[in-house]
Design goal:
- This protein is an alpha+beta fold.
- The chain is built from twelve helices and 25 strands.
- Strands 9, 11, 13, 15, 16, 18, 19, 20 and 21 form a nine-stranded antiparallel sheet that branches.
- Strand 4 and strand 5 form a beta hairpin.
- It is elongated.
- The two termini are 43 Å apart.
Length: 489
């Protein structure tokens, strides 16, 4: 499948990306890909090993005469975000990603593409097999579960890596190099809320908010896009005085993706259904006006619900308190940075919200350039949801990456970029969770930069990569590896 990828240039990189597309690899399901890469490394005679968590390292000795050059680590994560359009059945643990080219961009068909971070992984593999390249000692580090929890980086073995410089290949902007990133943490809220049976005087309706663009919860948090959980809760607030009770709720599937869809089943008096429909139609138009030019396909619909024996809904008070808490929960950009103009300092994504049989679950992803601000958002969640008797915990916290603008590695990259492309790269700090912050905490002597090709729509079925930028990225990576082979350069 995806044979057309091998006709793109540079062919070695695209050949490896084809393998990644054909090998299912959502977070937590990287085993088949690891087995393939280990067999591939054996075929080339490249030594490889894994740490206790399962992160994979493949090494390549230096070119003759360059053994004393600083060791270079090529780093990326093997997993991808698993998102598909609601009307497109796709099993990310079994089905390959189908790709196609449109106007110079590579897309997937109704799913995420996996260019994040498949492009970086493919580039590292192509470097390892390139026998024409002059290089110092090389290590390729492939981490696991980056998209779901940063688990691979957080559990990376210490005193394992040997290199002195790390090239993170997980950035998504052409002509830019990243030297810092936000830290983050998952805020998980859970509660068992009181329910009662749906009464004979109540009817069930199904409320759906669909058609949003979605996107990356860090890179796209400041784009003004709608959050399906935030917007559906506005709809629930609009129905508060018609005595609507929540039966169930499901919004979002990943804490690091802006939720594109959210659904709720409500029990309400039968005579209030038409009034609810009228109010929601008015709200739909309001939301369309607010999000015009950003989320033009937004839809808010109300359909008959499906009743089952023993169907229960939250008590009116519990339903009211939950909707109110969700309505005021932190969501979106909290503060822009004054130290790094144009960069989001602190944000929160209401990523996944669910309710079933009275069991409430929320997982939000807080990001910040400041650990203190990240902790404060988590504490605000705790204070808010304690009011409805919910428990809050913080999981998978990871540090940010402190910029080092005087880094010699950065200077060499900038010089090469200027020589080869005629312009200086833009030096950036990203509001996303690159693994560099975690890796730097474990290996504080590492010099690090991050760069990559142009990727848009990451973490959504709109994900795409600009084909020309891949060739540019590949040329820069090869040139940098060769330049670093000369310790006196």
């Amino acid at each position: 499948m995806n044979a057309h990828l091998e006709q793109l240039a540079p062919r070695p990189l695209w050949r490896h990306f084809r393998t990644l597309c054909n090998t299912p690899r959502p977070s937590g399901h990287e085993a088949a890909l690891i087995a393939h890469l280990e067999a591939w490394a054996d075929g080339l005679g490249l030594p490889h090993d894994r740490d206790a968590f399962g992160n994979l390292r493949i090494r390549k000795p230096a070119s003759p005469g360059h053994e004393k050059a600083p060791g270079v680590i090529l780093q990326g994560h093997l997993d991808m975000v698993a998102q598909a359009n609601a009307d497109h059945p796709h099993d990310f643990t079994r089905d390959p990603i189908a790709t196609h080219v449109v106007d110079g961009w590579l897309h997937a068909r109704n799913t995420t593409l996996g260019a994040d971070n498949g492009m970086g992984v493919a580039a590292a593999l192509a470097i390892l097999e390139d026998d024409t390249l002059v290089h110092g000692p090389l290590e390729a580090l492939f981490t696991l579960e980056e998209e779901s929890s940063m688990g691979g980086a957080l559990n990376l073995a210490e005193d394992w890596l040997e290199g002195e410089m790390l090239l993170n290949l997980d950035s998504e902007d052409r002509g830019q190099v990243y030297i810092g990133c936000a830290g983050g943490a998952d805020v998980v809220v859970e509660a068992q809320l009181p329910t009662s049976a749906v009464g004979e005087d109540e009817t069930l309706v199904r409320l759906a908010l669909t058609g949003l663009t979605g996107g990356h919860s860090g890179l796209d948090i400041d784009k003004g896009r709608g959050n399906a959980n935030r917007l559906l809760v506005r709809a629930l607030r609009r129905l508060e005085d018609v005595d609507a009770r929540l039966v169930d709720y499901q919004g979002g599937t990943l804490r690091n993706a802006l939720p594109r869809e959210a659904f709720a089943t409500l029990a309400l008096p039968a005579e209030e259904v038409e009034a609810a429909r009228t109010r929601l139609a008015a709200l739909e138009q309001e939301l369309r006006d607010e999000l015009a030019g950003v989320d033009d396909d937004l839809r808010l619909t109300l359909e008959p619900g499906v009743a089952a024996d023993g169907t229960a809904a939250l008590s009116r008070e519990a339903s009211r308190l939950l909707v109110n808490a969700l309505h005021v929960a932190p969501c979106g950009v909290e503060r822009m940075s004054t130290a790094v103009p144009g960069v989001v300092e602190t944000s929160n994504n209401l990523g996944v919200v669910s309710l079933a049989d009275g069991r409430f679950h929320l997982c939000a992803l807080v990001r910040s350039l400041r650990d203190s601000a990240r902790a404060d958002i988590a504490d605000r969640f705790r204070a808010l949801f304690e009011l409805i008797g919910a428990r809050t915990r913080v999981e998978n916290a990871y540090p940010g990456w402190t910029p080092a603008p005087e880094s010699p590695l950065l200077a060499r990259f900038c010089t090469l970029h200027r020589e080869r492309l005629g312009v200086d790269p833009a030096i950036k700090v990203i509001h996303a969770g690159l693994e560099c912050g975690i890796l730097g905490a474990k290996y504080p002597a590492l010099e690090m930069i991050s760069f990559g090709p142009l990727i848009r729509g990451a973490h959504s079925p709109d994900e795409r990569v600009e084909i020309d930028s891949v060739a540019e990225f590949w040329d820069m990576l090869r040139a940098l590896v060769e330049d670093l082979a000369d310790p006196k350069a």
